[in-house]
Structure prediction request, 1664 residues.
Amino acid sequence: MSKVGVVVVGLHGAVATTLVAGVALMVKGLAPRIGMVTEKGEARISESITTLLSFAPLEDLVFGGWDVRFDNVYQGAVHHKVLPPHVLSQVEGELSAVRAWPAVFGRRYAENVVGDNAVKAKTFRDEIAAITRDIETFKEKSGLDRVVMVNLASTEAYLEAGPVHATLEAFEAGLDRDDPAISPSMRYFYAALKKGMAYANFTPSLTHVPALAELAAKTQAPYAGMDGKTGQTLLKTALAAMMRVRRLHIEGWYSTNVLGNSDGAVLASPESNKTKVLSKAAVLDSIVGYPVENHQVHIHYYKPRGDAKEAWDNIDIVGFAGVPMQIKVNFLCQDSVLAAPLVIDLVRLLDVAKRTGDFGPQRQLSLFFKSPHTIEDGDAVHDLFKQEQMLLQWVKQRAAKLASNGTRTIEAEATA
Amino acid sequence: MSKVGVVVVGLHGAVATTLVAGVALMVKGLAPRIGMVTEKGEARISESITTLLSFAPLEDLVFGGWDVRFDNVYQGAVHHKVLPPHVLSQVEGELSAVRAWPAVFGRRYAENVVGDNAVKAKTFRDEIAAITRDIETFKEKSGLDRVVMVNLASTEAYLEAGPVHATLEAFEAGLDRDDPAISPSMRYFYAALKKGMAYANFTPSLTHVPALAELAAKTQAPYAGMDGKTGQTLLKTALAAMMRVRRLHIEGWYSTNVLGNSDGAVLASPESNKTKVLSKAAVLDSIVGYPVENHQVHIHYYKPRGDAKEAWDNIDIVGFAGVPMQIKVNFLCQDSVLAAPLVIDLVRLLDVAKRTGDFGPQRQLSLFFKSPHTIEDGDAVHDLFKQEQMLLQWVKQRAAKLASNGTRTIEAEATA
Amino acid sequence: MSKVGVVVVGLHGAVATTLVAGVALMVKGLAPRIGMVTEKGEARISESITTLLSFAPLEDLVFGGWDVRFDNVYQGAVHHKVLPPHVLSQVEGELSAVRAWPAVFGRRYAENVVGDNAVKAKTFRDEIAAITRDIETFKEKSGLDRVVMVNLASTEAYLEAGPVHATLEAFEAGLDRDDPAISPSMRYFYAALKKGMAYANFTPSLTHVPALAELAAKTQAPYAGMDGKTGQTLLKTALAAMMRVRRLHIEGWYSTNVLGNSDGAVLASPESNKTKVLSKAAVLDSIVGYPVENHQVHIHYYKPRGDAKEAWDNIDIVGFAGVPMQIKVNFLCQDSVLAAPLVIDLVRLLDVAKRTGDFGPQRQLSLFFKSPHTIEDGDAVHDLFKQEQMLLQWVKQRAAKLASNGTRTIEAEATA
Amino acid sequence: MSKVGVVVVGLHGAVATTLVAGVALMVKGLAPRIGMVTEKGEARISESITTLLSFAPLEDLVFGGWDVRFDNVYQGAVHHKVLPPHVLSQVEGELSAVRAWPAVFGRRYAENVVGDNAVKAKTFRDEIAAITRDIETFKEKSGLDRVVMVNLASTEAYLEAGPVHATLEAFEAGLDRDDPAISPSMRYFYAALKKGMAYANFTPSLTHVPALAELAAKTQAPYAGMDGKTGQTLLKTALAAMMRVRRLHIEGWYSTNVLGNSDGAVLASPESNKTKVLSKAAVLDSIVGYPVENHQVHIHYYKPRGDAKEAWDNIDIVGFAGVPMQIKVNFLCQDSVLAAPLVIDLVRLLDVAKRTGDFGPQRQLSLFFKSPHTIEDGDAVHDLFKQEQMLLQWVKQRAAKLASNGTRTIEAEATA
Prediction:
C-alpha cells in the first residue's frame, strides 16, 4: 500500500481537470506518457532521473481538492475545452467521480471568478479546520500513505508581504482576527504546513512569506513555487541560454502573448497584468549576465484563442563586428497541457523530498517555475539547463541517501 | 613576445574576411567584443571560461593564408558584402595589407569556384612543400610564437574515405602518385600535421581520416572539426535540448534554409546539398534520445538573401495527453558573422590544447561544430548545453595543469 | 421542383466528404453559411452577387458520384479527419446514406490510390455507358431538374495533350481502341459533355483538350477549371495585387508548403510535384506585369500536418530608392475546408451559365482556379481582384438577361 | 518651363529627407524608379494610369519647406538612417543645398520635438504671412509654374474639432486672437488654401475641418488626406479584401507594431497612441461588411528597430463548416521608404486635379490614406482594390477632359 494523494486548490480549473483527465487516459493506455521527467519514456537519455530513482506510479495517484465552480472534474474539463470531446468521453466515468469539496474563497482576491460551492465557515480558523478535515477524510477513505497539496487556483490580486506575514506569531494572531491580508492561498498553505505536508504553489499568488517559512521549518514541510514555467518563459530561458553560450548580445527582446481562457480574462485587468509581466521580465538578465535594455513583455486577452495560448517573440541580437540579426519565434501552445505534467513531477519530487527529510523552499525544483523560491533573495537560477543540472545533482544525492538508508526505513518515516 | 599566427585556407572568403575585418575593428575599438567565449565581455557569468584561463589577446593575432580569388582581404570583404561599406572603409588599410598566398586548388573538388591565384606546383609533394614554406616565412617575418591552421575554404565535393585514407603509409604513397582521392583540404591538413600544428576544419569537407589521425598522434598535433555550428543547427540543438528537458515529444521538425552567397550556390548542386543536409539531420536524434520520425532539412539557393541566411523551422510537438502543439522559428542571420568569432575561439582553445600537450581530435570543442570529431564513432555529443559543460570541464582541468606547471615551462614547450 | 444534382468524381475523398458534410450541417443549422460568394451571409457588401441573382438553395442540392474507396461519405469523412468526430456524428445519418457508385479508374494515372469499388467494364465505351446510366438513374430517382459534374478525384499523373486529344474525331477513335492516353478524367468529362451537362475540373489533371472543347461547343455545355485556388496561391494572388497597386518591386518570392494528407503523398512523387509547382509558379508574373526573377515554390509531404496544410512565404520587395523590405506569411489552413465552398459556388454559377446559354470554357469563373481555362492561350487573369470584377460583370449581365427573359422561360430551357 | 514646387512641412524629417534623397538618386540614375503609380516602370500592366496621363517628370520637381531641426536635408537624412551612408554620400551635394525655412511650431502640439529653427513671428497672422512669403520667394527664385504643399510633420497631439473650426468666419476670428485650438498644421493649410494651392496631409493631425473646407471651396483648392497608408494598414486592407472575396469570416485580428524612430517615441505617449490605434482599427469593418469582433491594434516604441518598422499580424478566420484557420504575417518594412513615393504620387495627382478644376476633398486619392477625406461622413472606401478602381476611373475621366481641352489651354490655366 503506497498510494499518494494529491489535493488540489482549484480542482475544477483548466490545469487540474487536464491533469486528472490525462492521468486517467494514461492509466487506461489511451494517451502516451509524455511531458514528465519523472516518468520513464521512450527516450534513451543518459543521466535521466528515472534511471536514478523510482517514483510513485501514475496508477497510485489519487486526486481530491477544492473548487467553487462545476459539479465535478468532467464538467470542468468539458467547459475548459482543453481536450476534445471525443477524448474526454473515454474517461467520463473516472472524471465524473472526482468532485471538489467546498472551497475557501475570498471575493477580494478573485473578483472575476464565479461559483457557489464555497465552504460554510464563519472564521479563518473554521475554514482551516474544514480544509484539515477534508484532507483527513480523503486520506482515510482512499487509504493513502501520503498527501501533497498543489495550488492551481486562479491568480489572486496583487499583494505585498506586510507585518502580518513577517512572523508566525503575527500570522497566527492575524488568523485569529480574520485579517484580510491573509489570502485564501495562504490559509490553504497554512493548513498544509500544520500537517507537515509537501506543498507546491503553481500560481503567481503570494504564499512564500517569512511567517509560513518559519512554520515549514518547524513542521519540516518541503515546498516549492512559484508560477509554473510553461510557454513563452520556457522558450525564453532556453533561447537566452543559447545566447549566453554563444555570447551573442541581446539588444532587445519583444514578447507578446495572446490567450483567450479565463486566465486571460483575469490578466486583462491592468493590475494582474502588471504583476504577471514583471514576473516574466525578470528571468532574462540573470541568464545572460547583464541588464537587457529593451525587454518588453505584453499580455493580451484575445478571445478567439480560447485555452490555447500564442506567443510571438522578436529577439534582436548583435553579433561579431556589431552586426545585427533577428530571431522570431511563434509558439502555438496549450497552456494547461504544458502545465499539467509539471504538477505530476512536482508531486513526485516533493514526495521524495519529504521522504528524505528535506524541508523549506526546494530550490532544486526551480526547473518548474518562473520565479523559483530560494532561501536567499537574488539567489534564483533561471537558465533552464542550469536548473536541470541542479535537479539532477539533487536526485543523485537523494538516490544515494535512499539506497544507504534502505527503502523500508524511509517508507516507515513517511508521515505526510 | 607571444604572437599567434592564424593561417587560413580560404583567406579571401566571406568568413575569413569578416574575421580579419572584425578583429581589426575590435582592436581599434570600433566594434564591440561580442560573440566569443574566450573574450571577456560585459556579461557577469559564473563559471565563465575567461575567469579560469587567459587567452592570446586579439591584438596578438596575426592573419595569413591562401586563396585563389581577389587581391587582398579588403577586396574580398567588399565583394562579400557581409559588413557595410562605411564600416569596412574604417579598416581599409589593415585589410588591404593582408594578401593571400597562391592556393592549392583542385577543380574536381570545387567546380563552382573561380580564381587564378593558384600555386604553381607539379606534384602534391611540391604543393605541400609550398604550403610549408609559406607558413615558415610567415612565422619568421611576423615574429610568431605559434601558428594555428584553419580551413575556411568552400565546401568540397562529397568524398568517402577509401583505402588511400586508411593508413599513413597508404596516404603517403598516395601523395607520391598524386592520387586524386587526396583532396586539397587533406593536403593542407597533412602539411599542418607534419609540423605538429593545431588545426581546425570549419567546413564539412572530409579531412578526419585514419591516415591523418595517425599522423596527428605521431606529431602530437591537436585538431578539431567539422562544419561550424552557426545558424539553424545552433538553434536546433538549443531547442531540442529544451524539448528533452521537458520531455515534449518531437513528432516532426521541418527545416528550410535560404541563402544567396557563394556557399549557397555550391549547395544548389544536389550532391553537395545532400551531404550538407545529412550533416544537419543527424543532430536531433542524439539529443532527444529517440529517432525523430519526421525530420526534414531543405536548403535552397535564393539570390535575394545574399550573404544573409534565413532559416524557417516548424516543430510539431506532442505534449501531455497527446495534445499537439507547434513552434515556428524564423532566424534572420548572417552566416559569416556567426562563424567568424567561433574561429577566434577555436584558435585560442587549440592553442591551449597544444600548450598543455593535448593531441588528436579535441572532443571538448564539440560546442563549435555540427559534426564534432570524436575518437569513437557514435560518441558525438550534440546538445549545446552538454557541449558547454564538456568545454568548461576541460578548461578547468587545463587551467589547473597550467597553474601547477607554471606558465614559463609551458611557453617553452610551445613549438607550433 | 428545382433540385440540382451534383455528381462528383471522387465522392469519398477529403474535399467531397467535407462538401457533403458541410452542406448537411448548414442545412440543419449546425454550421454557419460561410465561404461562398453565392450564399447570402452576414456581410453587407455593395455589389455582392447575391443581391443580383438567386441561386439554387443548399437545401436543393443532391449529391451523388463515384469512388473506389470507402463504403460511404461518412466513412470517408471519418478517415480524412477534416472535421472532428463530434461534428461528423451530428450528420452521420445523412452522410452514411450517400454511397459512391463504382468508379472508372486507371492504375497508370493514380498509382498511390488504393480501392476496389471499380466499375466492371471491358472497354472505355462500356465505362462511359456506365457513367451515363449512373447519372440518369440518379436524376430520375432523386427527381432532379439539372445535374452538374465536378471532378474532385486525386491528381492524375502528368500528361501532355497529343494527337488523340486534337480533334473530336481522333478522340472518339481513341475511345474505340481504348487508347491509354485518354485518362479516366477525360472519360468522365466526355460522358458529361455528351449529355450537355455543366462540368468543373477542380483538379490539375488534364481535361481541357481541343477534342473536348469541340464536343462542348457541339452540345452547348459550359465548363470551368482547373486546379482550385485555395491556400497559398489564393494568398499570393492577393498579395501580388497589393504589390502591383503600390508598384513595389518583387525581387524574390520563396514559397514552401507542407501537407500530410493523401494529396501530399501523391505530390511526394517528383513528377506530380513538378506539375503542381509549375502551375503554382505561373500566376505571379501575369499579375505584376514583369517576370519575377527569384520565384520558388516547394511542396513537401510532411506527415504530422495531416489534412491541414501549412504555407510559409517569404517575399523580398524593393521599394523607393532601392531599399529592400521583407514580408513573411504563415498560413495554417485546411485545404478541404477552403476548397469545398468553392465547389458549391461553381455548381451554382455553372448552373446559371447553362441556363443562360453560355457554353465552352467559362473564363468568368477564373476566381476559383489556379490555372483558369480560357479560349486563347495566355489570356488568363490571375489577379484575385480583377477576377472578382470579371465575375461580377458577368453576373450583372446574366441577371439582366434572366430578368428580361422571365424566369419561367429559362426554367423550361434547363435540360442538363 | 513647367517646374512643380513641393513645399513640405517637416522638410528635415525621415519621410521628407528620404523623399528628396530618393528623387535625387533617381534623377541621377542611381536608384530604380520604384513605388510610384505615376511613374512609368518596368511593369506592363493593362489600364495603368501612366498609359492614360502624363505627369510632371521627377526632373521637374523642386523641393522646399520648413523645419525646426537640422541644418539641411543631408544632415536630417544622415540622422534618420533610412538610407545607408554610402548611398546618401552619392547625393550629398544635392541634399545639402536644400535647407528648411524657419518653421511655425507649437510646443503644445509636439512636446517631444526639439529644434530651434522656428519662425520669428508674434502672431498667427504674422506666421501665415511668413509662410506665404516663403512660398512666393521660392516660386520666383526657382522659376516654378505651380506649387503643392505637403504636411509631413510629426503627429500633433490629439485634437477634436470645436466651434473655432466650424466656419471660416469663426476660424479667421480665431486667427486674429491667436486661438490655441488652431494648430500649426491648420495655419499651414490655411496659408496654402488662401493661395488656392493643392495640399496633402500625410499625417494623422487634424486639418480637415469645416472652416477650411469652406475656404477650399472658395479658392477652388483641391486637397487630400489623411495619414498615409504604408505598412500594416496597407497589408490589412489587401488581406481583408481577400477575405471578403472568399467570404471567409474574420473571427479576430490581432495586430502589433514595433518601431524605434522619433514617430515611435511620439506614439509612446498613451494619448497619441490611442489616436493612431483608433485610426488603424476603423478600416476593417468597412471592407468586410460586418463588425469584426476581436480586432486589436497595438503600437509599441521599441528602440532596436530604428526607422524600420515591424508588424506582426495574427488573423483568425472561420471557414466552411465552421472550421478555424490562421494567417500570420510578419512585415519588416521601412516606414519612410513606403511613404516617400506616395508623396510624389499625391503631388502629381493633386497637380492634375488643380489643373482640371477639381477642388475640395479628393476622394479618388483614398488609395494613399488610412483615413481618407470624403465629403460625407461614413463614405470612406478602405478596400485597397476598390480604391485603385476609384483612382483609375477618375484618371480616365480627367485624361479625357484634358484631351478635349487641349494641353496648351490647361497649362495656361495652371496658376498654383
Observations:
- DSSP finds 15 helices and ten strands in chain D.
- Residues 66 and 101 of chain D are 5 Å apart (CA to CA).
- Chain D has two domains: 4-228+337-413, 232-334.
